[in-house]
Design goal:
The chain starts with a helix and ends with a strand. The chain contains four helices and seven strands; from the N terminus they run H-H-E-E-E-E-H-H-E-E-E. It is globular and about 50 Å long. The strands form two sheets. Strands 1, 2, 3, 4 and 7 form a five-stranded antiparallel beta sheet that branches. The protein is of the alpha+beta class. Strand 5 and strand 6 form a beta hairpin. The chain has one domain.
Length: 217
Amino acid sequence: MGLAILAVGAAAVIALLKFTVLGTLDSRHVANASIVGASYIERIQTAALMWNQFDNSDLAEMDGTVVPVSDNPAPNFGTMVNAFAGALAPGVPSAWAHFGAPDASSIPGNGAMTTIDGDVTANPAQAAYCTHVRVTWVTGPDRPPVGTPGGDSFRVEIRTFWARSGRTVGDECALAPGSLDAMFANPGFSLAVAGINRTRAEYGIIHLTTIVRRNTR
């Protein structure tokens, strides 16, 4: 009887320790993903300083093409925004795209994946976090001339996700962002990732948003 009680007690302690460890790991991921998402927003705000023309003819310059590649804060971001400028009405969000990709269907470049320490990586085996971005044009007092694509400002949404188990998410980040939407939105939906069915409960997600305004003076 004593051994049985000891065994039950030991199992309870082990379960408590497991819960504590997983809770600590999840808290760390929430903090890290928040920092990663905030850093992407800062990079976009920096790139947006290049958007100055009233007719929106310089949207693509937010790519950072006027600075060295090593100093490029948001690669391909201007190209992505420019493509959606003429295709979407104000208030209609674009499809999710990998950060650093020129459109919603492109594979992630050196920008969407980050390590556990928040460093950008091109190696899927080191990808602790994956970040998607989408934009929504909004109206404002400084609208461009009639017929000009886009508006004077747009909302940027950042979606950074990770695996709660602590594994890497390189396989998920290799998928088109839109293919993950249904799983992230529906707890009962499963998605085959590298031959394994994954569900929403396996992932943590951080959403951040900001407004970018044209610098017309």
